[in-house]
Amino acid sequence: MQQSHQKLQVLLEVAIIAAFAMALEYVPHKTGISSVEMSYGVIPISVLALRRGAGPAMAAGFTWGILDLLLIGIGEGSVLNVTQGFIEYPVAFTVAGLGGVFFKPFQKALQKDQRLTSWAYAWGAVLLGVLAKYLCHFYAGWIFWGAYAPKGMPAWLYSLVINGLSAVFTGVLALVVVTALVSIAKHLFLAKTTARLAHD
């Protein structure tokens, strides 16, 4: 009974985080540089990754990706074909949750009040998620969006600049916000079912 309750709680958190990440897509996120934009949804996905681990975070990312594809991507003409759409939405958004590989050491450090260590694992989680997501966008940009590159500019370089800058802006913002949350809202990262990790 308790195990079923825990699974339901995790599923609810996955749904809430996916919905929140999708809602953030409607907040202005352009940087002023053509095609370079921030992905605010990486922040709640990173929080879930550090709270529950890679599995739930990737599930939330996948759900977010499907929602973004259906609600924004197709309507805005950001889907060129099935393969590109698959890479840039379900795949890219799912791997944003890979930072959950730092879940256990982060939880132990946080529960032992090891601030610098918990920050380090949180940074690792954010950077891994951002890097994985934008590697997918880089690949898709190189292969599928090359025709939009300025004349004389290689497709791979165009994709690297656009997606590299997007990754930098997104990563810096996510690092700042997640670090602040770890410092002032520790409870967001602690779930009752993870309380025993510090003693394992």
Automatic annotation (TrEMBL):
One Pfam family it belongs to: Thia_YuaJ
InterPro entries per UniProt: Thia_Transptr_ThiT
Keywords: Membrane, Transmembrane, Transmembrane helix
Membrane-crossing segments per the record: 57-74, 86-106, 118-144, 156-182
Matches recorded under NCBIfam families: ECF_ThiT_YuaJ
Protein name, entry field: Energy-coupled thiamine transporter ThiT
Source superkingdom: Bacteria
